[in-house]
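Homework help board

Subject: predicted structure for assignment chain

Our instructor gave us this sequence and asked us to write out the predicted structure in token form, then describe one feature. I got the tokens but I'm not sure how to describe them. Can anyone check?
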Amino acid sequence: MRRVSRLAVAGIATVTLAITVSACGSSSSESTGGSGDSGKSKGIGLAYDVGGKGDQSFNDAAYAGLQKAEKAFGVTGRDVEPQDGESDADKTQRLETLAKAGYNPVIGVGYAYAPAVKEAAAKFPKVTFGIIDDETVKADNVADLVFHEEESSYLAGVTAAMTTKTNTVGFVGGVDVPLIHKFEAGFEQGVTDTNPKVKVKSQYLTETAAEGGFSSPDKGESAAEGQIDDGADVVYAAAGLSGQGVIKAAAAHKVWAIGVDSDQYAQSALAKYKDSILTSAMKNVSGAVYDLVKSVIKDGKPQTGVVRGSLSNAGVGLADSNPTFKGNAELQAALTKAEAGIKDGSIKVKTS
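My token output:
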């Protein structure tokens, strides 16, 4: 496997989000597609990305949104795990099975579901489909739920630059794709803007998701070990389940880890490492799932089109569960200033 340690320069579209803003679209409350269906939603269908439920990160955030919606709206949910080596056809069949069973909305967790969502949505025009981390699917019954990951990553970079004692920090990306380039670009910019003397060591675990970049804690641990050996005392991981290995390595060497997507300091499965998790660069995947379900099941006006979120609407941000992080007045002041700059446009965060 070739490991990549560069800041990718591939051009990507700027992906933003607004979890709390309803997108325009159809207002039908019918929830099933195909002739002969009742039009009444059976509940929420959720199809996980690589790594599945239990990653304490991206997928678990989606599941938290499902659980919140179940409780709030008195509906049931069905969540389905991915399989190793599956094809786009397998993903399509998974989404279509949920739609046929009467679930609405049906949500694909992760950009890899783009081809499947496009195909399934065309076959079930009365079902609302959601896809997280992709905005390429354009259909009247599809909501593209996307985020400004680079903004929270910039704040993670500010945090790393102000915390390091060795002037060396690390970034571990799960897979070398444009989505993860955004995390790296924002992080590196945040570090450099705060203290240009701090070096950022970056590494991607794999070229493709099929190689396990998002689902291999051992790969994450090995990458972090290498960066720590090279002097990094703060390591930020955007690697899904693989990030657990980064956190484990940080704890073993008594350096800081910065988590991603969920508040990993507060995750019970990571409790034995939590004293090494300084903060997490979160994105409100839970809120995105909940709001889409609400729009379909309660409001009867399904979200469609691109639904964007950013620091401005709390779609992304940093977790403050760790008292060491929250209690650092100098750091908090710097973060407040940086966040204000991003919101007013005086700080323009790179995406690649």
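Reply (TA_rk): Your tokens look well-formed. For the description, you could write something like this. Residues 1-38 have pLDDT under 50 and may be disordered. That's the kind of observation they're looking for.
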